[in-house]
Design goal:
The chain contains five helices and seven strands. It is an alpha+beta fold.
Length: 263
């Protein structure tokens, strides 16, 4: 004998007994159970607009996840593994420079100095770069003699160590002047000045107000020693129609040699 069942209980088996038609159960049809291996569909929450449920992501696609902030978004990252500050690259160039040894620096300097030394040697040895430019005084002397303003003298027998570096004849309102410049064998400067400009005008200009120092012991003429501008000294010969001055920073013996060679 079967136990009594509640009145609202539905039979678990809807199959009718033999000879009877099938009985359709009343009430809402039961939802089909999910197939094996497929997840059950769950009603999603209402979308942001409130119009209905948000669409579900397609099967097999990962859900969208908001990326972390970082350098790509212009802000500092809050994730410990992502940093917005990029480390500076190692200063390899500065390190390489600091590691240059004194020997390397000396070799580099030597590479620069060798061509310069070769050029200087070529300039001095072949081109004569240290040698003063010499001139021929003959045209200026000939012009002064042709003007016949005063007697013109020229040094004779000075030797090859004396080099003429300038020669000029000039006429002014006060008179005419012949100047010939020399480089002495010791490499100093000397100048021979011959002029018919009055001595009281010529000497202050040529000697920078130099003062007489007494007679000079020279054969054939009465020369006077004078001080001159700077470290120069002078020998002066006063004649009625001309004044002769030998002046320069050369030693007195060389100035005497030049004055004594005039003919």
């Amino acid at each position: 004998m079967e136990p009594a069942q509640p009145a609202d209980r539905k039979p678990t088996d809807a199959t009718p007994p033999d000879g009877h038609p099938p009985v359709t159960p009343s009430g809402p049809a039961p939802e089909p159970s999910p197939a094996a291996g497929e997840p059950a569909l769950v009603e999603s929450a209402t979308g942001a607009t409130g119009a209905g449920p948000a669409p579900l992501a397609d099967a097999g696609e990962p859900a969208l996840v908001e990326p972390v902030e970082g350098p790509a978004r212009g802000g500092a990252s809050s994730h410990p593994a992502v940093s917005g500050d990029q480390p500076a690259p190692p200063a390899r160039r500065e390190k390489a420079r600091s590691e240059r040894s004194p020997r390397d620096m000396a070799l580099s300097l030597l590479v620069l100095l060798v061509p310069i030394a070769l050029l200087l040697a070529f300039y001095r040895g072949v081109l004569g770069g240290d040698e003063p430019t010499t001139v021929d005084p003959a045209p200026a002397v000939a012009e002064a003699r042709a003007a016949n303003a005063f007697p013109v003298s020229q040094p004779e027998g000075l030797g090859s160590g004396w080099r003429t570096v300038s020669a000029r004849y000039q006429t002014t309102d006060g008179g005419s002047t012949l100047r010939i410049g020399y480089v002495t064998p010791e490499g100093r400067g000397a100048q021979l000045v011959q002029s018919n400009v009055p001595a009281e005008k010529l000497l202050p200009v040529e000697l920078s107000n130099g003062q007489p120092q007494g007679p000079a012991e020279l054969p054939g003429a009465s020369w006077q020693r004078y001080t001159a501008r700077g470290n120069e000294q002078a020998l002066v010969l006063l004649e009625p129609n001309r004044t002769v001055i030998v002046i320069g920073d050369a030693r007195e013996n060389e100035l005497r040699q030049l004055a004594g060679a005039l003919r």
